[in-house]
């Protein structure tokens, strides 16, 4: 979706720079046969172009395909059995975005999007004849599920575009101009990443440059990240994340149609249909806090582990140790207690674990490996967790070294 000038200068460049931690390749773009013939540009110039983008309005159609390599049939079956054994969650609205948008993590989906600055955005997920719409208009956020005829409403977070809202980790102000962005990326450059411009492409009828980000380290599960950038205005049009395992991209998301003119104001208005069930987000959140034993946080330091994972993470925070650097960073978490034997767990939970966990052994002892095409995690029988966008061998080596 489109961002305001401030959002464009902060969010998009930081997404690129955060993945990079980077060495900027100064290789010019060369047009391949059939691709648009555009002026040569370096990776540094292209990053500056993204940072300078002031796109605030757009509408179009977006296609996203996700293949994490999860055994979804077994996982879905296990989760269903587990939920049934626990009596189900109950009480939530089918229009709640936190519930509904999770389906984007698998399969292919088509969405319509529209944006008019930082105050108005709309996303509609198409599923056959049914639609799910999420609308932000000023102080209100509405969600509507046409299949169940349920509505979810809550107030937009206060100060969403206030000073400091786009701060980086540990409250550091993020670079705000193209030159500052390039300087910060170059300052953080190391030997772990290659960033180049590799040819051009047509995306949604627009001429685009291809920004390619690749790890130089062995042991990472990431093969490459490719971002198609609009040659005229610097707006990212397509994002592709590929795994070293090959096959379909882990994430392939991009516009199939796009129009940068201002959408009609009526696109962002919403009135709950007569007879629809309306759930207020504030009330649901309060009810959830009463029944949530973790107070909205993951137990055992996992919140800190996944919130601060990656280069530059605080290795002493929340009982998390960070091993390695760059693309092969591994977070180590010690629960301090052995893992209960799975054969003593409820049969529903055993089925869930068996659906996507593999037993592994090494000098560290034994444990269970949970795999996707990108992020893998090793849970040892002693209660230690090793997680990262790294291969199985890299996790086992880390566990052996930490024995």
Could you give a short description of this structure?
The chain has helices at residues 5-20, 43-52, 72-85, 97-100, 178-187, 281-291, 302-307, 347-356, 392-401; strands at 57-66, 107-116, 120-127, 130-137, 140-145, 150-155, 193-203, 206-215, 222-230, 236-243, 251-259, 277-280, 320-323, 330-334, 357-362, 365-370, 376-380, 384-388. The protein is α+β, with helices and mostly antiparallel strands.
Describe the 3D structure.
With 403 residues, the protein is α+β, with helices and mostly antiparallel strands. The chain has helices at 5-20, 43-52, 72-85, 97-100, 178-187, 281-291, 302-307, 347-356, 392-401; strands spanning 57-66, 107-116, 120-127, 130-137, 140-145, 150-155, 193-203, 206-215, 222-230, 236-243, 251-259, 277-280, 320-323, 330-334, 357-362, 365-370, 376-380, 384-388. The protein has two domains: 5-283, outer membrane lipoprotein receptor (LolB), chain A (Clam); 302-401, TATA-Binding Protein. Helix content is 23%, strand content 32%. A twelve-stranded mixed sheet has the order 7-8-9-10-11-1-2-3-4-5-6-12. Strands 13-14-18-17-16-15 form a six-stranded antiparallel sheet. Helix 1 (5-20) packs antiparallel against helix 2 (43-52). It is globular and about 65 Å long. The N and C termini lie far apart (46 Å).
